[in-house]
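ok so I'm stuck.
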Amino acid sequence: MKLQIQLSGTFHRLLLSGTNTTPTSLDDLMREVQAVATQNRRRTPQLLRQSFGLDFIPETVLINLCKQVQINVNQSELYQIPALKLLQPIKSQLNHQIANTYDYEFTSREGNLKLTPDDPQIPIFTKNISEESGIYSITIEQPNYPGLDNKFTQKIWKYSKDYWHDLPKVEKIKYVLSSRDINKFCINYQQVKIWISIQELSLDLRTAITFLRLNQESQISSLSTSVRLLVEEYQSKYKYQPINIPDKLQPNAFLNPKNGFLIRSAKNRSIIQKIIKDAQQFLLISSYIIEDEELTELIFEKSSQLPQGVWILTDLRNEILDRIDEQISGNISLPEQYQITDERKKTCLKMLLNANIPIRSGAFHLKTYISEQYAYLGSCNLTRGSLDFNKEAGIIVSNNLLHQPLIDLFHQFWQKRSRYEVIPDHNINGFRWRSLLYSNQEQYAKYPSFLTPSQYQRDLIKNLMVFRGQVKIYSRSFQPSAEIATYLRLLDSNIFIDSRMSVKNQNFNIHRINNLHAKVTILGNQVAYIGGINFNFRDLNFHDLMYKTNDKREISQIISQLPSLHS
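replied:
not stuck anymore, here's the structure
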């Protein structure tokens, strides 16, 4: 058991003896602000104001201050990319400065804590201010903590332990199944968070939890009496059965079979909107990120009209936001209006939950939008950037040989690759998680035209081994495996990537395209791949698909549309 405790008190900054304050000029201060900002992708004047507490300075004044640091520059020279107002990167001069040296403390009625200077909880002290009220969080694993009163820690430890011990077993099961982490879970008790490891639970509890996660109703008779009673008590109190997609979703058989390719810039909204709006029976939606309020509202409206429902796969794991742009070079940032925001994601999620739309989360990078009328597979997410700004690519089909396999693959993702169900709740977030496990990770049913990341990699290697000719690769990023890189170096390979991405493989013929998000790979007129998988084979754990074709007519159609990615 671990306890996370929040203490109210005062932070103190104490200047150590033998050090003196060093005056800092306005130019020095602005130079450091710009240096830190450009190193951390906060490169527009708007982001500069937001991130450094400079909102009180008018933007025109801030721009003039930035120009003042870089002597004799005009407006256009201030920016590396004037159209996006991205500031020129500049270097820090901190190595020429003498830093003040301080001690830091946090004092409260429960005790006094010595803090290290790099503690992220220490507030930013301005000017000569040396004290500031605030909250400090600690985590204890035993009933004592250096600097705190032992009576306080022993008391809070005992109360928390007693609360956990007295909690009914069925409530403990609920907490476990609502946790996004299958190895531990958290209970809020007064002002304390109690963290419990699954291994701390009794064998009966762990067995019941595993049974409920795997949804093994047919095997309930094999459980011991004590475990079976636990399962039955939980099911009677929290009757929530996993929601499964109807088995017989099919394309509209009265439509003329057809397919086409959509390779375009800033015109994707109308296509996705049409797929959603024209649906009459069902909608299957998978988007890595969902943050476009307009289309989310349309999905909300359609959910009450479709007899076979709306079903959504997405990736709601917190760590995703932290690594979305980990490959972007340190000096580039998207325009502010297209930044991914937690607020938009929360707004859209609550809207979907209010419509009681079934949602599952997992490592889904898949971008597909399917109804009985149409099916789209490609690179376009439900974000403002993808819909209105980026250069995207995909295939759209209607009642042909590809339509039903896409429906079936979505069904497999839902049944076999989801990690959590998102369940509406009356808590502060408006939802809770129910973790999902499967008794075995069954293989995908294979469809030769639709490849998962590992299948795509193997198929590409197989074709590169015997191919002789020109290769064209369009991808947001480019990080081939060592084997693929070896084959590409032997061929006439042209690589097109997003202009914001850094590249480690400098010995390739690499071209940069602004706002490129399309994923297309073409080997002459022999084979083409188009879909949602980046040419990045470091991580094959994401769930995604690429459409593969050897049809020369289709390959010609794809090639004919590629110039739109360069415009």
